[in-house]
Predict the structure.
Amino acid sequence: MSAILLSGKEMEKELLTSQIERCQALKEKGIHPLLAVIVVGEDPASAIYVRNKGRMCDAIGILQRTIELPESISQEELEAHIEALNTDPAVTGILVQLPLPDHLDENRALACVLAEKDVDGFHVVNTGKLMRGEKSALPCTPRGILHMLKKANVPLEGKHAVVIGRSNIVGKPVAMMLLQENCTVTICHSRTQNLKEMTRQADILVAAVGKPHFVTADMVKEGAAVIDVGVNRVDGKVVGDVDFDHVAPIAGWISPVPGGVGRMTVSMLMENTLEAACRA
Ligand code: GUN
């Protein structure tokens, strides 16, 4: 393998020490960071995310409250729970675990979270601020991707970044953040024609497709930084969107799955939670 490995595990470790110290310093000032997580229904992937978030909170000293709500809950009841957290002075950060069951309106629920307590950066005000290049709570996965690229000193200014995927959680916000770093950004998606022609131009390639081993070696320019956001289950194993074994010899940098972006997402949630507590 010639590519430099972008290890989320290592970067998580580096951040953890400083997060423990910052949490302790906040407590000494009488501020007790408390992350409230709303989980609706029993999505198995959500259960794993929530458990990982909980472990990290424990390691840092962030208090947590998990509100488990039944699958059958109404929009009004869900919003009443969010409102109660908004007005509770002990709660410094709020996260609504996605996806919500189909009968619930995700946008309405996310808009209900007080923007100051929004640790996911999903509130429409924070989304708008990101679009305008104003300081805001940033979505955790995109923030983690930028952290990885900067930590590894991957050149960004003037470089061509190609993002595959246009979700509100990853594709769109990471494209905006790369633009903010003066990249030239192309967003590709399921209807893009000549995808390979696009991806082969990428100095930075972000794969957020949700298809195992979708990005193959022939789609990658030599020396590119390849960021794999995929979390796909194949025969009980977690694999990314990138065909790691064949892409790694060509790439300049590559993030593995597992142990890559996923680790950074939780780490950045902790950053956002500490920052929200400072605001409180
Ligand atoms: N579901 C999958 N990823 C995320 C995330 O980053 N935040 C929330 N709230 N739900 C998710």
